[in-house]
Amino acid sequence: KKKMLKSLLVFAILALTNLSNAQITWKDCGSKNGAVTSLEVEGCSATPCTLKKGQDASMLVKFNQKIAANTVSAKVSGVILGVPIPFPLPESNACNLAATCPASANTENQVALKLPILNEYPSLSVDVRIQFLGDSNTNIVCFQFPVKISS
């Protein structure tokens, strides 16, 4: 009986360890002056992330920025059948979303985004495309990751 309990415990630890290795994966969609280093989505440990209607999806994106920028702005789209559909943000000025502004070249920066998932949105699987732009809309990073919008 003790041996069975011990092997069950080992199995449980292994299962949990495997779970923590699951991660949110994203793909680059044309970053010109930087690279995403990490993406955390609240309540999500592996893609596709499920975003609930009527709630805000909170995420923290860290990225290396190769160019200096006085301002950083965020642009979010939902990509449906390869077509990016702009997603309205309550705040697109990343300087108000935990980003360092002005930002020096070759530094790590971060943006804490909140995306309101409206009840009117259809329940579907979609890629969320996020772009961070520097001065004069210069592309810093562009990446996308899969989500499921559900009730």
Automatic annotation (TrEMBL):
Keywords: Disulfide bond, Secreted, Signal. InterPro entries: Ig_E-set (IPR014756), ML_dom (IPR003172), ML_Npc2-like (IPR033916), NPC2-like (IPR039670). SUPFAM superfamilies: E set domains. One of its GO terms (biological process) is intracellular cholesterol transport. It holds the Pfam family E1_DerP2_DerF2. PANTHER family: NIEMANN PICK TYPE C2 PROTEIN NPC2-RELATED, NIEMANN-PICK TYPE C-2C-RELATED. This is MD-2-related lipid-recognition domain-containing protein. It comes from Brachionus calyciflorus. The lineage of its organism: Eukaryota, Metazoa, Spiralia, Gnathifera, Rotifera.
